[in-house]
Specification:
The chain is mainly alpha-helical. Among the domains are: 5-74, no CATH class; 83-165. Helix content is 60%, strand content 0%. The chain contains eight helices and no strands. It has helices at residues 5-13, 21-33, 38-47, 54-60, 92-102, 107-168, 183-195, 208-217. The longest helix is centred in the middle third of the chain and has 62 residues, at 107-168. It is rod-shaped.
Amino acid sequence: MFTDWAEALEAESLPLEPTSAQQLAAAARVTARTAHDKHDMTLLLDVLGLPTDTDTLTALLPLIPETGDAPMTTIPAAPAIDVPVVPLPVTSQVQELLDWASAHPAAAVRNRAVRITADLAELTERRDTEAAQREAEQKVAKARAELERAQEELRTVKASTRTTAAATVSTPIRAGAGSGRSREELAAIRAWARENGHQVADAGMVRRAVLEAFDAAHQAPVRKAG
């Protein structure tokens, strides 16, 4: 906006309140540099509330650009700053204001629009990131709850299986089952059978014929009636 940075810095460094004669003079000089001619400068000074007396105008005339020079208000705009365009969660009024500020001839206004746009984009990204994080945490919590339920069901099934298995375990079969004899009795029967010419295995079932022969040989003799 300024061609004379010394003048710009001087105006920027002045205190805003109260408005001093030095401030008014600096503002008048800057205004004169943007005017087409004396009449245009007078109008600009009047609109801005700056002095338009003859002495002030005479002092400012040398600052008006020469005829043919483009006034400051018509110089080409500064190159646009490369800022990624992102969808912003703003109302149409705010978006229109940002568009207006982005096209403003003043670099300070354009830069502010860029900063606001970047801040909105950062806030939007942070909001989306936090929303995605909350959604992921909810999914994890739900998965953990389902896993705990499944583990509890598995423990219940295992406990039920053990109880059923314990209830259905049959009583161990005694050696020599089917004959109703103990192992000691069977051992004695096998020894007697071998002594009396019977063939028996060292283990397993003893043939019924051998059992009957053993029983018959060991029955008490029946006493005959006198």
